[in-house]
Amino acid sequence: xxxxxxxxxLNALLNSCAALFMVLGYRAIKRKDKARHKRMMLxxxxxxxxxxxxxxxxxxxxxxxxxxxxxxxxxVYFAILISHVLLATAVAPMVIGTVVLGxxxxxxTHRKLARWTFPIWAYVSVTGVVVYLMxxxx
Length: 138
Ligand code: HEM
Known about the structure:
Blueprint: H1 4-30, H2 34-62, H3 72-103, H4 107-137
Helix pairs in contact: 1-2, 1-4, 2-3, 3-4
C-alpha cells in the first residue's frame, strides 16, 4: 500500500531531479551547447510536471502534514513554506512561457524571460526539498 510518506519522498526526489537538470541545462547554454540545453530544460520541465501530478495525488489521498517543530524553527519553516508556495504559483506560467519561446526559436524574448524564470524555478525546486527535509527528516 502506498503511504503519504512514500509519495512525499517521491516528490522530493522529483524536485531534486528538476533542480539538477536545471543546473545542467544552464551549464550547457553557458557552454553554447544548445541541443543539450534543450534536452536538460525539457527534462527539468518533465520532472516538475510529474512532481505536480504526484503532489496533487498526495494532497487528495492524504491531505497536508503538520509541522511538529516548536520555537524559532517554526518561523523559519513557515517563511520557507509560504515563499515556496507563492513563488511556485507565480513561476508555473513563466516556465511554460519560457519553454514555448525556446521551442519557437524566439530567443531574444526567451533569454529575457528565462533570466527571471531560472532563479525562481530553482528556488522553488530547492525549497521543495528543504520543506520535505524539515517535515520528515529533522
Ligand atoms: C524553462 C526552461 C528553460 C529555461 C529556464 C531556460 C533558460 C535559459 C537561459 C537562462 C538562457 C540564457 C543564458 C544566458 O544568456 O546566459 C537560455 C538561452 C537559450 N535557450 Fe533556454 N531555457 C529553457 C528552455 C529552453 C528550450 C525548451 C529551448 C529549446 C530549444 C531553449 C533554447 C535556448 C537557446 C537556443 C538559447 C540561446 C539563446 C541565444 O543564443 O540568444 N531553452 N535559456
